[in-house]
Design goal:
By secondary structure, the protein is of the alpha/beta class. It has 9 helices and 12 strands. The relative contact order is 0.15.
Length: 291
Amino acid sequence: MRILLIGLGQLGRCLAAILPLYGQLTIWDRATVDLRLPERLAQLLDQLKPNIIFNAAAYTRIDAAEQETKLAMAINGQSPAVLAAWAKANGASFVHYSTDYVFDGRKLASYVEEDPPNPLNVYGRSKWAGDEAILKTGGHCYIFRTSWLYGTLGRNFPKTILSLAKTKLTLEVVDNQIGAPTSAEFLALASAQAVFGAKPAYGLYHLTASNSVSWHGLACYLVEKAQRWEPDLKLKPENITPVKSLKDYPAARPANSVLSNQKFFQTFGLRSPSWDYYMDRFLVEYFERFK
């Protein structure tokens, strides 16, 4: 089986470690392919002729997207549409990763796949445009929506908090946005197991860690746990002040980013661990790697 992986961010690198177990892997990073030019993708795919495409690339600069609308739409909307259409026309499968930001966050319960998207910002609209285009192809496609992705590679909230904790005596962190911090390692492993399972079950799925926490709660958890490795951290959990989300951000954020994993579990029989399970694994790896 010829597998193509696009993107080597924090999720892509985790997928790159897993996918060789399932076939011959080719990786396209930014040096190989320019997703800002979706019109060139089909020609490259014709040369490689993959049996399955994993698209882990995305434009993720949420605030910058408010000004770089065309760029965000090209990478998050148009390129996935071209990839999915090529897969449909050539009998290949397509795997894509999306986001909780397709929703407005006003729902009180967790979001299910049937809930209508209503993005609050350009980033969310660009990701929904990609989702919609993929689904319209009617091809052999998987879309996995996730939330609050993190890992030891790349930039993310947990790494930022741990870095600030070394120098800051106090910190303000938003407490009126909740979600399920999801490990890139877990997302890569669970989605690969689903895709390469015994029986194909194409479609749209939510795939995150279980349970939820606010950004403030997560920051306190990280700092408290980090004291095991760095007992002299300047920042203490009690000095992290909860604040309401700032209204002067260029891009609005959803207050509720909690996604239901029930459809994924019922289809594939794979349960999601609580967010703190993989967060503890992340902390061990982080301090082994960066201390």
